[in-house]
């Protein structure tokens, strides 16, 4: 994805854009990083978000936006290289380490991040958070899934329904 | 299915936990699909146990990979999956027992309409099972792996497998003149990269020579204790080959055989019988 490589001709300084969270916090960030968002990319290409104006993001609060931008800033250089075909193994390993740590977060934050990645259409982040949730479910028994995802223990009624389901789908519970 | 009764009990105690649980099921449809598609089907089914809202959610996964572990009788599992889920079926891998063999034709009919890409079929016991020609209607196949079965003739109007990259026929039986059938399948699968013919038995006593034309083939394995008359004609990208010429060398031109493999960088030749042919220097 071609991101604007430099500022508006002012000595190659990176062009900056301002994003405004739902609780009115302003974030100044390089256009290349913000452009990882497909939603923002067109606005930025059209010259939006610069100067005194900012791009309002009414669906993303400041805590989530700050986290999203942390991801975008880390991934922007690789994305600018067209998915970094020349990236060294060290670079890739570093990004992987960053990603793993990045999603090591509270579930409430994770869900906010999922929604933000979805609304802002940040492809890499969408995959990363979806994979994280899938990993939380993989290979677990229903009770383990419930506990991992913070579900309350089932009521006797729910337990009876679960048992009936497990009987019907025995192959999935082996 | 459990009857739905309106819940009149106060829910205050559970609100916090309920909010957390609802967060996941309330995600946009495609986000949840993305998560569920990353799971093995078994794990996706297990999400049914989370709550009533989750009970049938797995059934709307847009794309399924059905792989039933061999310890399980596949009949109930496959039937319930195919009847409940309307999504595409990317993969289907089942060890067939006696009961499921009776359903195989119906399953293949459904799978042929669901964009099946990867098919692996093998019998649970070591008995040849008859395969129905519907398998040749799965036009979107990318990989076809058949083990210990009787392969039916091609149906009229067979148009080939335009996406097929891997064809593996191990311990299979073909009807008389099956050589031409193999030739046609390979020729009408222009993307074929890997071909494995291992103990492929063809009925009839005639020796029929046939040609392997596979412009994209990268790997070839032919293991058979009988010479079925294959000739290498067009395999410009072949890089590796495993050939067992148990009874091959005696009756045919070994130099011609090698000439068909000059492009290969890794060649494994083996035989159970002693080879008396003069091996020419390359």
From TrEMBL, chain A:
SUPFAM superfamilies: POZ domain, Skp1 dimerisation domain-like. Involved in ubiquitination and subsequent proteasomal degradation of target proteins. Together with CUL1, RBX1 and a F-box protein, it forms a SCF E3 ubiquitin ligase complex. The functional specificity of this complex depends on the type of F-box protein. In the SCF complex, it serves as an adapter that links the F-box protein to CUL1. This is SKP1-like protein. InterPro entries: SKP1, SKP1-like, SKP1-like_dim_sf, SKP1/BTB/POZ_sf, Skp1_comp_dimer, Skp1_comp_POZ. One of its GO terms (biological process) is jasmonic acid mediated signaling pathway. PANTHER family: SKP1 (PTHR11165). Residues 124-163 form the SKP1 component dimerisation domain. It comes from Eleusine coracana subsp. coracana. Belongs to the SKP1 family. Residues 16-75 form the SKP1 component POZ domain. Pathway: Protein modification; protein ubiquitination.
From TrEMBL, chain B:
InterPro entries: F-box-like_dom_sf, F-box_dom, LRR_dom_sf, LRR_FXL15/At3g58940/PEG3-like. It comes from the Eukaryota. PANTHER family: F-BOX PROTEIN-LIKE, OS08G0460800 PROTEIN. It comes from Eleusine coracana subsp. coracana. Residues 21-73 form the F-box domain. This is F-box domain-containing protein. PROSITE patterns: FBOX. Coiled coil: none annotated. Pfam families: F-box (PF00646), LRR_At5g56370 (PF24758).
């Amino acid at each position: 994805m071609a991101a604007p490589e430099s500022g508006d001709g002012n000595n190659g300084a990176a062009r900056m854009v301002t994003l405004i969270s739902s609780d009115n916090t302003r974030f100044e960030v390089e256009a290349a990083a913000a452009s990882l968002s497909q939603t923002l990319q067109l606005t930025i290409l059209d010259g939006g978000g610069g100067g005194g104006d900012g791009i309002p993001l009414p669906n993303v609060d400041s805590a989530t936006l700050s986290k999203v931008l942390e991801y975008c800033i880390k991934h922007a250089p690789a994305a600018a290289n067209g998915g970094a075909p020349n990236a060294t193994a060290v670079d890739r390993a570093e990004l992987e380490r960053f990603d793993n740590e990045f999603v090591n977060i509270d579930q409430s934050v994770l869900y906010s991040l999922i929604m933000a990645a979805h609304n802002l259409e940040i492809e890499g982040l969408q995959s990363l958070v979806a994979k994280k949730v899938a990993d939380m479910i993989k290979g677990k028994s229903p009770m383990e899934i419930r506990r991992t995802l913070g579900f309350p223990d089932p009521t006797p009624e729910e337990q009876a329904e679960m048992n009936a389901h497990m009987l019907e789908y025995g192959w999935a519970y082996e | 299915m459990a009857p739905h009764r309106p819940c009149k009990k106060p829910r205050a105690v559970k609100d916090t936990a309920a909010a957390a649980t609802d967060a996941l099921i309330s995600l946009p449809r495609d986000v949840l699909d993305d998560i569920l598609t990353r799971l093995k089907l078994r794990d996706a089914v297990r999400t049914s146990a989370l709550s009533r809202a989750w009970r049938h959610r797995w059934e709307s996964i847009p794309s399924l990979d059905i792989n039933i572990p061999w310890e399980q009788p596949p009949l109930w599992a496959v039937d319930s999956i195919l009847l409940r889920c309307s999504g595409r079926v990317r993969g289907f891998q089942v060890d067939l027992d006696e009961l499921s063999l009776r359903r195989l034709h119906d399953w293949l009919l459904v799978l042929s309409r669901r964009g099946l890409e990867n098919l692996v079929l093998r019998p649970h016991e070591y008995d040849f099972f008859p395969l129905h020609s519907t398998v040749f209607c799965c036009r979107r196949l990318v990989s076809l792996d058949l083990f210990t079965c009787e392969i039916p003739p091609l149906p009229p109007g067979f148009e080939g497998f335009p996406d097929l990259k891997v064809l593996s026929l191990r311990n299979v039986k073909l009807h008389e003149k099956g050589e031409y059938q193999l030739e046609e399948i390979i020729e009408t699968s222009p993307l074929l990269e890997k071909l494995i013919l291992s103990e492929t038995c063809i009925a009839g006593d005639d020796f029929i020579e046939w040609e392997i034309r596979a412009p994209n083939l990268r790997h070839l394995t032919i293991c058979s204790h009988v010479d079925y008359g294959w000739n290498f004609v067009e395999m410009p990208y072949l890089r590796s080959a495993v050939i067992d010429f148990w009874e091959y060398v005696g009756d045919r031109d070994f130099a011609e055989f090698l000439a068909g493999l000059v492009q290969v960088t890794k060649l494994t030749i083996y035989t159970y019988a002693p080879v008396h042919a003069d091996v020419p220097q390359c």
